[in-house]
Amino acid sequence: MFNLLLALSLGLLAGYLARKLPSIRHYIQAGISLGLFFLIFTMGIQVGSSQEVMASIGSIGLQAACFAIFTVTGSVLLSLPLSLWLKRKQVKETGKPS
Q1: pLDDT tens digits, residue range 55-95?
Q2: Which positions ≥6 away from 25 have C-beta within 8 Å?
Q3: Are residues 27 and 62 in the same domain?
Q4: Residues 40 and 11 in one domain
Q5: Which residues constitute the domain of residue 75?
Q6: Are residue 28 and residue 63 in the same domain, yes or no?
Q7: Cβ proximity of 54 and 45 under 8 Å
């Protein structure tokens, strides 16, 4: 846990210092993309080498699909009333719809 907090703190410090060097942003973005690609690649190797995970990949995929569908559906169903309420509130305050 300490290692993670140390890495996060050093990253924050490096990011703060890099703000003053706009020419380095391209290299930072490329490093992030490369690091993310490497992370996903190594996770794929670990999942692919696990017999237990590979044996239940169909079940895991079905659960993931259901989770994604219910998450999106719930987000849409809960955001619609909020959106309508905010529009009504704006009309009351400004007198004109957006």
Answers
A1: 998 899 999 999 999 999 999 999 999 999 998 988 888 87
A2: 18
A3: no
A4: yes
A5: 57-98
A6: no
A7: no
Tokens 């719809």 sit at which residue?
Answer: 97
Return the percentage of the chain with pLDDT > 70, whole number. Answer: 98
Same domain? 48 vs 5: yes
Whether residues 72 and 31 share a domain: the answer is: no
Same domain flag for 62 and 40:
no
Express each pLDDT in 19-50 by its tens digit: 888 788 788 889 999 999 999 999 999 989 99
Where are the strands (E) in the chain, listed by range?
none
User: Tokens standing for 7?
Assistant: 């890495």
Residues 43 and 63 reside in one and the same domain:
no
Residues 6+ apart with CB under 8 A from 54: 47, 48
pTM passes above 0.70: no
24 class by beta-carbon count within 10 Å (0-12 exposed, 13-18 middle, 19+ buried):
middle
